[in-house]
Amino acid sequence: MSENHRELDVVIVGAGFAGLYMLHRVRELGLSARVLEAGGGVGGTWYWNRYPGARVDVPSLFYSYSFSSELQQEWNWPETYSAQPELLRYAESVADRFDLRRDISFETTVVRAAWDDGAARWTIETDRGDRVSARYLISAAGCLSATNVPDFAGIESFRGEWYHTSRWPKEGVDLAGKRVGVVGTGSSGIQAIPVIAEQAAHLFVFQRTPNYSFPSATKPMDPEVEREWKAHYDEHRAKDRVSFGGQHVEAPDRSALDVCDEERTRRYEALWDQGAFGVLQSFNDLRTSLEANETLAEFVRSRIRAIVRDPDVAERLCPKDHPVGTKRPCLDVGYYETFNRDNVTLVDVRADPIEEITPTGLRTSLASYDLDVIVFATGFDAMTGPLLRMGITGRNGLTLAEKWHAGARTYLGLATAEFPNLFMVTGPGSPSVLASMITAIEQHVDWIAEAIAYIDSHSYDVIEPTLEAENAWVDHVNALADATLFRLANSWYVGANIPGKPRVFLPYVGGLGAYRARCDAVAGNGYEGFALR
Ligand code: FAD
Ligand code: NAP
Fold first, then answer.
1. Is the Cβ atom of 183 under 6 angstroms away from ligand 2?
2. CB-side neighbour CA atoms (13 Å) of 308
3. Which of these, 220, 221, 216, lies nearest to 195 by C-alpha position?
4. What does the CA dihedral 495, 496, 497, 502 come to, rounded to 10 degrees?
5. Is the CB of 110 under 6 A from ligand 1?
6. How far is CA 236 from CA 56, 448, 491, 511, 522, in A?
7. Among 275, 324, 278, which residue's Cα sits nearest to residue 299?
8. Ligand 2 lined by 492 (C-beta under 6 Å)
9. C-beta of residue 54 within 8 angstroms of C-beta of residue 30
10. How do beta strands 7-13 and 131-139 pair?
């Protein structure tokens, strides 16, 4: 990084979809800005997650930027749900189109950021020894970018190769003829397992908790559908922005318990056959009534039992410990069918836990497995992980880790008291991962850019939430979550996947539309709940 980058208006951490758009917006305000990105290129999630089968679970006509009419009109998506290479190509093309790369430092990780109250500036330090000073620090570090590799004993002794799904090598991995073990059956594992099974000599799937997975609806894009959609893109986007999940769908108006068993099953079957998450929208009380939810959960189990030929394997694949939809549901292409293959073995590591990684493979309490390659599809230290790993220190030496020792506390998921001029794109306490994320990202980036424009045009130096506003927001987020079934699942939404992480429901469950209205009202009332000085 050159000398002229040392005194900036804005430092943005991360060059995924959030960081790219944030850079574009602050440049439009005439501010000097630099993006610091740990990876070697743009794209964030889609730069890192190159594992076989990686694909978006939101239709690409929704999961794409809306800020540029030309971009959304000119870009053609070859498939309805894009695979990782296409999403990476899209991010790269956006970076080129808006000439963003000249303000991005790649392979540069932020390791410390400290607020200087006297100067009203942040000092940001990187793993390359850079020290940069900026008026604003904006985290676009993502919700799912801090990789979780469990602390398995003996991992350093393994003589084969091991990979985490989100650190998959660019050049790919040759699995042909190899004995492969996949640890983890969340969305990443469920996408990768069918593809790996086709390549490997034998695949062992180490499953701790079975998940609900729905058939993907991926197909080649019908040019007629795309043309028709693009003709009305602005109307579609306007509806998405005020929708619950960032993707406009007709809201169901009936309870699952108000219809007879036959009608309910017919509806589930029809929506299951359409693919994707439509079946989760079939009735209005699936997220709030355990009894209603169980009707869908049992329907999914009946599908699994119908697909998987070995009844014992089928039963072990049936999720029973959490209501359907309370963990991020998965989409798959032939996941359950994979367990009918002769070269695939399901190992239940809940009943028979992993004890250690050995030089030749993996040992559970009851057996040893010889492996050439281990794939950890073990997820992320979600939402708070990227922020806490950045080493942020606010006013009076208070670290973010100290402030959040009992769980994240934010105002609107955008800012946190005692950390002035720090903004978080899709931070904890915002809809973020419960929405189609590019829609959520655009809302946050626009709000932050407008807040900065307001502060600068009113000659303020500092913006920071009041503790009262923050406490009220945290209470509101918790109250909404407590009224749903989400609290019943040991999910990464509550930090349950990371040993020792405080159990706090992290995203805002009230819907993107309601959330946007609240953010707009806060801004419209002169940034109510923020102290400006
Ligand atoms: P990211 O894309 O995560 O980018 C953050 C960037 O910040 C990363 O490149 C990272 O290297 C960088 N960074 C972090 N910390 C530092 C640091 N200290 N210093 C420097 N750089 C740093 N969402 C959906 O809505 N639909 C989906 O179907 C979907 N599928 C997904 C599939 C996978 C495999 C994963 C992991 C996530 C998926 N998501 C999905 C969520 C996805 O993360 C978002 O949709 C979106 O890509 C997030 O963009 P972002 O820019 O906010 O964060
Ligand atoms: P994940 O959902 O957290 O799944 C991690 C898996 O690893 C779980 O099965 C977990 O088991 C297992 N695991 C973790 N630690 C383990 C241990 N010590 N021993 C044994 N098993 C262990 O992570 P992910 O699959 O990477 O997905 C994370 C999120 O990224 C998703 O929820 C989704 O939001 C996003 N994503 C989306 C897509 C998509 O379809 N578009 C694809 C991939 C990822 P337990 O359940 O028992 O903890």
1. yes
2. 22
3. 216
4. 50
5. yes
6. 19, 24, 32, 17, 26
7. 324
8. yes
9. no
10. parallel
Q: How remote is the C-alpha of 288 from its chain's centroid? A: 23
Cα separation, 239 vs 10, in Å, equals 32
pLDDT tens, position by position, 403-446: 999 999 999 999 999 999 999 999 999 999 999 999 999 999 99
- Among 432, 437, 443, which residue has the most ligand 1 atoms within 8 Å of its CB, making it the best to mutate? 437
Q: Is the CB of 439 within 6 Å of ligand 2? A: no
Q: State whether the beta carbon of 52 lies less than 6 angstroms from ligand 1.
A: no
Atom of ligand 1 at shortest range from CA of 389: 18
Q: Is the pLDDT of residue 268 over 70?
A: yes
Cβ of 469 below 6 Å from ligand 2: no
pLDDT band, very low/low/confident/very high, at 251 (cuts 50, 70, 90): confident
Common-topology check for domains 3-146+381-532 and 155-233+289-376: yes
Atom of ligand 1 nearest to the CA of 47: 9
So what's the architecture of 3-146+381-532 in CATH? 3-Layer(bba) Sandwich (3.50)
Superfamily of domain 155-233+289-376: FAD/NAD(P)-binding domain (3.50.50.60)
DSSP 3-state assignment of 463? strand
Decide if 419 contacts 436 (C-beta within 8 A): no
CB atoms within 10 A of CB 40: 10
CA pair distance 416, 387, nearest whole angstrom: 12
* pTM (predicted TM-score): 0.97
Is residue 109 a contact partner of residue 56, using CB atoms and an 8 Å limit? Answer: no
Tell me how far apart the alpha carbons of residues 486 and 482 are, in angstroms, rounded to a whole number: 8
Domain segments of the chain: what residues? 3-146+381-532, 155-233+289-376
Tell me if residue 337 falls in helix, strand or coil.
helix
User: Ligand 2 in contact with 437 (CB < 6 A)?
Assistant: no
Q: Rounded to an integer, what distance in angstroms lies between the CA atom of residue 198 and that of residue 175? A: 9
Q: Find the 165 Cα to ligand 1 centroid distance in Å.
A: 13
